[in-house]
């Protein structure tokens, strides 16, 4: 009897699992399938089992790439650029305004990389640079880039999204 096939996936299945990117794809699929767009501990365990990988490896990949979320995410994602060009043009004020407007005035970017509102409507995070410094300050709202953002413009975007959610 072939003990290799009795205790682990077949050679062809293992071949697929060992391909570069297979684990990333499995994690992406799992996150996309989650209602709150994140990878729970149970999900990480299930992916490790499915991919026949140690949980520690799966966890280290999930924590290395910033597009994987280990906490439940809001329906809308606001990303405030905190690079030098955006900082000098007021991005800290934008971040503070968003946090205050969304009921998280105690948020400190040096303590947490992001926050999600209790109603799970918004997640606000920062990025080091969008690569569009000439348009600073830059904010992304659900993937759409807004250049030369102002606190007033950001507040009206947040307010209209909130109104849209309560309709
Ligand atoms: S610093 Fe904000 S886009 Fe580069």
Average pLDDT over all residues: 89
Query: Shape from CA axes?
Result: globular
What is the CA-CA span between the terminal residues?
64 Å
Strand order of the largest sheet: 2-3-1-4-5
In total, the number of strands is 5
The CATH superfamily of the largest domain is: Glutaredoxin
Helix content: 40-55%
Q: Bound compounds, please?
A: FE2/S2 (inorganic) cluster
Q: From the alpha-carbon coordinates, what is the Rg to the nearest angstrom?
A: 20 Å
SS-derived structural category: alpha+beta
Largest sheet: 5 strands, mixed
Q: What's the domain count?
A: 2
Query: What fold name stands as the CATH topology of the largest domain?
Result: Glutaredoxin
Quote the beta fraction.
5-15%
**Secondary-structure element string:** HHHHHEHHEEEEH
CATH class of the largest domain reads: Alpha Beta
Quick structural overview:
The protein has 167 residues and is α+β, with helices and mostly antiparallel strands. The chain has helices at 3-7, 11-18, 22-33, 41-51, 55-64, 84-88, 91-101, 151-166; strands spanning 76-81, 114-116, 122-127, 139-141, 144-146.
